[in-house]
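Entry 12.
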Amino acid sequence: MKPVWRIVLPLLAAAHLLPIAAAQANEHAISYNDNPTSGQSTLLIAQAGAAGQDTDKWATKPKDQPAAQPAQPQAPGKTTYFQRARSYSTHPESDPPRYVRNLAKTDIEAFKNLDWLDVGLDYRMRYELRDGDIRRNRLITDNNFLLRTRAYIGVRNIVDPFRFAVEFEDARAYNSRFPKDNRDWNEFELIQTYGELYFKDALGKDDLGNNRPIRIRGGRMAWEAVDRRLLGNNQWRNTTNNFEGFRVTFGQDANDWELDTWGMQPVIREIDKFDERNKSQWFYGAVGHWRKWSDVITIQPYYMGLMQDDKDGQQASREIHSPGIRAYGVLPKTNIDFDLGAIYQFGRDNGQTKSAWSYLVELGYTFKHDWKPRLSAFYGFVSGDRNPNDNVNNRFERFFGFARPWSPDDNLIMENVKAPKIVFEFSPHKDVSIDGGYSWFWLASDTDRFNNLMNVSTPTTLNRDPTGQSGDFLGQSINARINYKLAPLVDTTVGYSHWMNGSFVKNRQIAALGESNESSNFFYVEVSIRAFK
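Predicted 3D structure (tokens):
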């Protein structure tokens, strides 16, 4: 285990930085990298493998509400402006995390006066069977056991305005036929160690009487923003995206408006030693929330930007700006919900002009039935590089997002893809939720890469055909998932995804491996145990 001083120092540093946090409110941090040999941008180790699923069944408010349960319409006597989006798997992780409880609100009598202490302990085990995994450079069957332990302690109220939190994680994997990587391994690590100044009514109150606080944080943090497509801590993957820097939030979820700002450097996940921030990269952002009309629509305008220096010629210099807007809600007097998004990116990327874009549309209908069945249709377009020989890079940069909304088998990331999808969700019992869907995938540009193809653990350049002669059809996927609360503190999930290879995948596998499969299979069983109800 790492020396105690390596654990204590981040806490002291966070507390020391708080007095100057207001002056640096727009300087938080995050990370990134390029492949200098191929000229193609790839995420640094801190982001590697960020695409993936999450246990979205727990991402509800309140916590134990089934995933298929739609947001409720606001009554005349409402006390909050917040409305949860109904769209599939787009709900950010709560703060503090979902497994954390305030001790005074547990059913343990001895803790009834400890309303200043938040505590959580969570253990998760998942068995994965992957047959013909297209992400790998060998088409074999792999049986992997993923183990993750997390613990959280947070102090609030008792010494306000100062607050702090510490979150520990130990992530390991066994029985895989592939080498260790930082998607699965990160032993004895601190994923959050921050101090906070919290001013509960610094901006007065909204029309419903809710306080408008200001929250200033400094230190190491993990959180998610908007729909998690550009910034997610990745609850599905065994390891966690996290960052070091500053974050300043004006307002809260209950208010009619809120503004979240940050300036961060990403933490580089190390397998066998203590994680450190990437000092050559900065990730800035601001997300606005307008909820005044949230009975019908919530609007989220935002900006995210990535700055990377060249380290004296050792890596590509990058400056990417990404303004976007998202709007979601429910059409009045109907059960039809919507989630719309548009993003544009510009700047400079490894000496090239950056010009990339994405748009996202999801429409859903919730039937009037006790099981709350919801059927939805989604279409996403994410640009790829149109011409490998010009001086313009059209490949969309997904920053630190994750890909559960795109692909439950972890095959896709938000890059160079056209993806229509049909999804169903329902909850036949208060302790059971079921979802599944059918998806089709094409390259947005047939001359650009399919990022995850044969690219996990052993990166390759053979996932791109600059001539476009390999086609553009990636494949189609059918998937299903069942979530069952086995006991008050024990949650279980069983999932399956069947991927059918398209022409592009087959042609590139034959070119790189000399063989190709018609399809691949992904099956998993997951058990999660937490300490407090």
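Annotation: The two ends are 30 Å apart (CA to CA). The chain is about 5% helix and 45% strand.
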